[in-house]
TrEMBL record:
Reaction it catalyzes: Hydrolysis of terminal, non-reducing (1->4)-linked alpha-D-glucose residues with release of alpha-D-glucose
Species of origin: Microctonus hyperodae
GO molecular function: alpha-1,4-glucosidase activity
Lineage: Eukaryota, Metazoa, Ecdysozoa, Arthropoda, Hexapoda
UniProt-listed CDD domains: AmyAc_maltase
Keywords per UniProt: Glycoprotein, Glycosidase, Hydrolase, Signal
Pfam families, sorted: Alpha-amylase (PF00128)
Protein name: alpha-glucosidase
EC number(s) stated in the UniProt entry for this protein: 3.2.1.20
Length: 573
């Protein structure tokens, strides 16, 4: 029996890399995403705004996140709620003004919080003056977008190729005035920008400078993988037998529209540009949904100047059906593939484009993902609401506003709409959860707000909020810096992550993937001391901090998740 255990644990306990020392502020930090329409409304119109964010920055400071990134706040017709930009250098009046932005930055700096803006370089709104001039072929704007003649087949005009938009149907829309098709990877109101135009490239660099001059500490770059398309515009191969309608984005292999070589060079040109800006080094985070399936492509962004090529493993590759081994394989794969050099791992728990973590893994396991992001080396990225375990809000078809939901129709919207994860932040139990003084908000407040809200969670010792706060404190402390990382299977159903600096200094995360209790000999499997203390446990597990546990005979309740340590609890207080 012992032989069996030893063999399995040897196979299972691959020791994975430990990060080199870097002085950047984002090393071992948490970054918090704010969805501005839903964070805090300051003027009672039912939509969140900049003054609202400013009024709630104390909350972020208390959590001790290092930075926040804000989804787009720029002038927009709001066809895609801000991801369709009509002026990259001005604030939409719904959110406020440049003066409000100045106040926001000032408050953030006073709280030692870094400010990161969303940069949406792939496309603009069709209401952007550049597009209007491009239609009229006014130089140099004529070349700012991706225009192509149609194909005439049997005397009928057809789009130039078979490319499909992420939101379904052809990625090309005919413009009667210019008598050409324009490319759009999203809605037809979001024409694709053409980075083969030198003038356009210059304009976009100026956009970056505009905001760094206003105190911004870096950018999150939206949908970067789509920046360039193959200049020959070939048809993309059709994937056979997907069972999807032929107008669905996932029926094509996107070999000519994603991760083109020039895209990496574009990121590098922004890196170089930002490095010429005064002040501390600016952070660049890149959004690429390739996940573990296209890991090589994702990793390449590190070498072209991205500090945080978002790791969406917890969103795209793992879910409530994943087992301990799936988590181990995914975590090891990501860490082991980070290129050699001074690069940081990152772990995205949630965002505005997906179901909330409480839905993807179940309410009982919500804290586990933040625990994983906290104990693993590198940057944890959380989305507003994670810190209180917010849940998706069911919305009826007639309440649905997300274009991705609307295009899917009255049945399928339930599977595609991003609205459920975007409802207002639940601050307290007053009108509209304290989000707005109005009882009519742009998306309905989740009715569970009366019990599920920040104020309630602050007033008790055991809540998602108090747990998240301890997790952020653990990451930002220097206690795990220079520690090795081991991802260990403790049998089939328990995942262990050990951060070890020396025999006397370690933190251990244990997750029970069963919904029933299990007793494990963590001491032998993980080579850890016999008596350790609980640093934090998930809300489901509810073991008070400081509780001593005997790791040779450790009882984990169903779905349990705990971080134990060899530091004395008093030391950590
Ligand atoms: C964006 O708005 C600013 C301020 O109103 C204006 O000065 C600028 O010309 C606008 N940019 C474009 C490209 O229209
Ligand atoms: C892209 O770059 C890689 C290596 O840098 C090269 O092997 C490949 O041929 C390039 N692809 C195209 C389409 O130029
Ligand atoms: C997993 O999640 C899906 C959808 O969120 C749910 O229908 C299913 O019951 C869950 N399965 C388990 C094993 O929790
Ligand atoms: C929207 O749908 C809900 C439930 O399906 C219904 O109760 C409500 O009356 C509808 N509202 C409008 C404005 O149609
Ligand atoms: C919403 O507010 C209006 C105006 O203050 C009030 O008349 C109405 O009863 C409120 N509705 C709800 C559901 O609280
Ligand atoms: C609302 O929250 C306050 C403060 O957290 C609490 O004292 C009060 O009992 C709550 N009211 C209801 C109706 O839950
Ligand atoms: C807050 O984070 C900073 C690093 O960003 C860290 O130095 C500090 O110790 C943290 N404070 C607490 C109370 O955890
Ligand atoms: C981590 O290691 C580096 C390089 O050896 C050292 O300079 C630094 O002091 C260490 N930091 C901590 C917190 O142990
Ligand atoms: C950690 O455990 C070892 C072995 O049990 C013990 O000797 C040491 O004192 C502990 N260290 C701390 C900081 O509690
Ligand atoms: C821990 O548990 C093991 C197994 O039950 C037992 O033999 C050992 O004495 C316990 N250690 C302590 C310090 O209580
Ligand atoms: C991955 C992705 O699609 N990100 C954003 C890209 O832009 C579209 C359209 O503006 C947004 O809806 C997405 O959130
Ligand atoms: Ca408002
Ligand atoms: Ca593009």
């Amino acid at each position: 029996m012992l032989g069996y255990v030893t063999l399995i644990s040897l196979i299972a306990s691959g020791i994975v890399g430990h990060s080199a020392a870097t002085q950047e502020w984002w090393k071992d930090s948490f970054i918090y995403q704010i969805y501005p329409r839903s964070f805090k409304d300051s003027n009672g119109d039912g939509i969140g705004d900049l003054n609202g964010i400013t009024s709630k920055l104390d909350h972020l400071a208390q959590l001790n996140v290092s930075a926040f990134w804000i989804s787009p706040i720029f002038v927009s017709p709001m066809v895609d709620f801000g991801y369709d930009i009509a002026n990259f250098t001005n604030i939409d009046p719904i959110f406020g003004s440049l003066t409000d932005f100045e106040l926001l930055v000032k408050k953030a700096k006073s709280l030692n919080l870094k400010v990161i803006l969303d940069f949406v370089p792939n496309h603009s709104s069709d209401k952007h003056p550049w597009f209007e001039k491009s239609i009229k072929r006014i130089k140099p704007y004529d070349n700012y977008y991706v225009w192509k003649d149609g194909k005439i087949v049997n005397g009928v005009r057809q789009p130039p190729n078979n490319w499909i938009s992420v939101f379904r149907n052809s990625a090309w829309t005919w413009n009667e005035q210019r008598k050409q098709y324009y490319l759009h990877h999203f809605t037809s109101a979001q024409p694709d920008l053409n980075y083969r135009s030198a003038e356009l490239n210059e304009e976009m660099k100026n956009v970056l400078t505009f905001w760094t001059n206003r105190g911004v500490d870096g950018f999150r770059i939206d949908a970067i993988i789509l920046a360039f398309e193959d200049s020959r515009f070939p048809d993309e191969p059709v994937i056979p037998n997907t069972g999807l309608p032929s107008n669905d984005y996932n029926t094509l292999r996107h070999i000519y529209t994603q991760h083109q070589n020039e895209t990496y060079q574009l990121v590098q040109s922004w890196r170089k540009h930002l490095d010429t800006q005064p002040g501390s080094k600016k952070i660049l985070m890149t959004e690429s949904y390739s996940g573990l399936k296209e890991l090589t492509e994702s990793m390449k962004y590190y070498q072209y100047g991205s500090d945080v090529p978002f790791n969406f493993m917890l969103i795209t590759d793992l879910n409530n059906h994943s087992k301990a081994i799936d988590f181990k394989r995914s975590i090891d794969k990501w860490i082991n593939n980070i290129p050699k050099g001074d690069y940081q791992a990152n772990w995205v728990v949630d965002n505005h484009d997906n179901r909330r973590v409480t839905s993807r893994f179940g309410v009982k396991r919500a804290d586990q993902m933040t625990m994983i992001a906290a104990i693993l080396p590198g940057i944890g990225v959380i989305y507003n609401g994670n810190e209180i375990g917010m849940e998706d809000t069911w919305l009826s078809w007639n309440e649905t506003v997300d274009p991705v939901g609307c295009v899917a129709g009255p049945i399928d919207y339930q599977f595609t709409s991003r609205d459920p994860a975007r409802t207002p932040f639940q601050w307290d139990n007053s009108t509209s959860a304290g989000f707005s003084t109005s009882n009519k908000t742009w998306l309905r407040v989740n009715p569970n707000y009366r019990t599920l809200n920040l104020a309630a969670q602050k007033s008790v010792s055991f809540s998602h909020y108090t747990i998240t706060k301890k997790l952020i404190a653990l990451k930002t402390s220097n206690l795990m810096i220079n520690s090795t990382t081991e991802v260990i299977l403790v049998g089939e159903n328990v995942l262990g992550i050990v951060r070890r600096k020396s025999k006397n200094s370690l933190f251990v995360l244990l997750i029970n993937f069963l919904d029933t209790p299990i007793t494990i000999d963590a001491m032998s499997w993980m080579n850890i001391p016999e008596i350790m203390s609980v640093y934090v446990s998930s809300l489901e597990t509810k073991i008070p901090a400081g509780t001593k546990v005997n790791t040779s005979k450790l009882l984990l309740s169903g779905a349990a998740s705990i971080i134990i340590t060899n530091y004395s609890y008093n030391y950590l207080q």
